[in-house]
Amino acid sequence: MTQTWQDLYELQPQITGMLKNSILRERVAHAYLFDGERGTGKKEMGMLFTKSLLCEDLKNEYEPCNQCSHCKRIMSGNHPDVHLIEPDGLSIKKDQIKSLQEEFSKKGVESKRKIYLVISADKMSVQAANSLLKFLEEPAADTVAILMTEQIQRILPTILSRCQTLSFKPLSPGMVKKRLLNHGLDMQRSSIISHLTQNFEEGILLGSEEWFAQSQKIVVKLYEVLNTNSLKALLYLQQEWFTHFKERDQLDRGLDLLYLIYKDLLYIQLDRRDQVVFQNIQEELESRALHLTQRRLAEQMSSILEAKRKLMSNTNPQLLMEQLVLNLQEGSSFV
What we know:
EC number: 2.7.7.7
GO molecular function: 3'-5' exonuclease activity; DNA binding; DNA-directed DNA polymerase activity
Keywords: DNA replication, DNA-directed DNA polymerase, Nucleotidyltransferase, Transferase
Radius of gyration: 25 Å
Pfam families: DNA_pol3_delta2, DNApol3-delta_C
Distance between the termini: 51 Å
Number of domains: 2
Structural class: alpha/beta
GO biological process, one term: DNA-templated DNA replication
CATH architecture of the largest domain: 3-Layer(aba) Sandwich
């Protein structure tokens, strides 16, 4: 999907405004460092900025046309004056930077500018980082560098000082949900996933996983069994829960989903039904919310958070879940 400046303004309004102004005022820096978590739009912003710098038919003086030969070749990844550097294995090696320097010692093949984008710049080897530093210290005319990182603390201070740093903010749940919907996920999955991660890319991955789809069903079933009797709930743990949530990180995800159900109960009590994420069981949640005090609900939510905390220690996962089930049922009346 082709991104526009308006699309990215919704993701990162401050950074979008700064880069647009640099184009309009012809004050493009020779080196930028995009810093932020994965999935916050760094690469998309870098590619859009690159198109705007090379486009032959800009709209409104900054919006690329996506039709000229420069735009098309950038989108297809074969523009001779645009170079993308990514880790080769676990790191970016000196030879990759050396090859880039040799390429940039030549004049632009098709355009006045030459642009290079370095993905995961924090993964440069020491030798590669030092080679890039020399490159940044003596930038060629009309050369633009765009470095991207999720770990700015691992970038050499000498490289940082030669770049204009732009910090990308984590996406809000509302924005993640909107992007997931636009990507084709349904409302139910988009709502749930947007409360589990601020990373759009991770959200897309979760939305495509059969394991995650099954996880939601198992968690909902546990919640339903919790409201029947304690023996059934403990039996369900053995028969279904532990056969699906086998690893600690999987169990942690299951607890996240369970927590969202109790959070939905709170939203219903506060008359904020538009924020309910488990919409497929909302009628049941509405009924259950009538029989819970906010104090009891707060205790149940705290029990889940405490279980998540203990999970990260060496607590036995089976004992932890059995204790959680008892805590969630304490004081409940079974039907």
